[in-house]
Design goal:
The longest helix has 22 residues, at about 150-170. The chain has three helices and eleven strands, in the order E-E-E-E-H-E-E-E-E-E-H-E-E-H. It has helices at about 50, 115-120, 150-170; strands at about 15-20, 25-30, 35-40, 40-45, 60-65, 70-75, 80-85, 90-95, 105-110, 125-130, 135-140. It folds into two domains: about 15-140, Methylamine Dehydrogenase, Chain H; about 145-174. The strands form three sheets. Strands 1-2-3-4 form a four-stranded antiparallel sheet. The protein is about 20% helix and about 40% strand. With about 170 residues, it is α+β, with helices and mostly antiparallel strands. Its main location: endoplasmic reticulum. One of its GO terms (cellular component) is endoplasmic reticulum membrane. Keywords: Endoplasmic reticulum, ER-Golgi transport, Membrane, Protein transport, Repeat, Transmembrane, Transmembrane helix, Transport, WD repeat.
C-alpha cells in the first residue's frame, strides 16, 4: 500500500470513517463534528450547536457514520440516531436516545431484493447497534413531493394572478 493523501480532519481521535460516492469520505470525530471530505477539502460538516440547538455540544458526540450515497446515517455516544441528506446534511430523521447508551455502529439496509422487502414503502432503512445489546431498525418515510407539471402549473397561475391584480390595482398598467 502507498499513502496517497494525508490531512488533519479533526482535533483529536476519529471515531468512525465511511466511504461515500464520488470519492467522498465521511468522518466522525471526538471533536463533536461529523465532516464530509472530497480529497483533503472539507465539503460540509455538522456541529452539535449549529444542527441541534438547545442540546449542549459537550454532552453529545457523533460515534458512528455510514453514507449510502443518498443519505448519511449517524449514531451518537448518548444513543441517538439520525439520518441526513448526504449532499446537504439536512436532517430528515432523528430519534433522541434510540438506545440506552453508545451507538457503536450504523448500517443502511442494502437495496437488494431482501432489503426492499424490509423497506416496504419507506425511502431508507438504517440499522443501529449499541452497547445496550440491541439492534434497532429505523425506517425513513418516503418524502412527498409535487409532480413537476403541477409545480409549473401553479407557477403559471401565480404569474397570471399577479398580472390580473396589478391590472386591477393600476388600470392601464399593461
Amino acid at each position: 500500500m502507498k499513502k496517497m493523501l494525508e490531512f488533519k480532519a479533526h482535533d483529536g481521535e476519529i471515531e468512525d470513517i465511511a466511504l461515500g460516492p464520488d470519492n467522498k469520505v465521511v468522518t466522525a470525530g471526538r471533536d463533536f463534528q461529523c465532516c464530509v471530505w472530497q480529497q483533503d477539502q472539507l465539503v460540509t460538516g455538522l456541529r452539535w450547536h449549529e444542527n441541534l440547538p438547545g442540546i449542549p455540544d459537550k454532552a453529545y458526540r457523533y460515534q458512528a457514520c455510514r453514507d449510502s450515497g443518498t443519505f448519511l446515517g449517524l449514531g451518537t455516544v448518548t444513543g441517538s440516531v439520525a439520518i441526513h441528506i448526504a449532499f446537504s446534511l439536512q436532517r430528515l430523521y432523528y430519534v433522541k436516545e434510540a438506545h440506552g447508551i453508545v451507538v457503536t455502529d450504523v448500517a443502511f439496509v442494502p437495496e437488494s431484493r431482501p432489503g426492499r422487502e424490509l423497506l416496504g414503502g419507506h425511502e431508507a432503512a438504517l440499522l443501529s447497534v449499541a452497547v445496550d445489546s440491541r439492534c434497532k431498525l429505523h425506517l425513513l418515510p418516503t418524502r412527498r413531493s409535487l409532480p413537476v407539471w403541477l409545480l409549473l402549473l401553479l407557477c403559471a397561475g401565480l404569474i397570471v394572478a399577479t398580472i390580473l391584480l396589478l391590472q386591477l390595482a393600476f388600470p392601464g398598467f399593461l
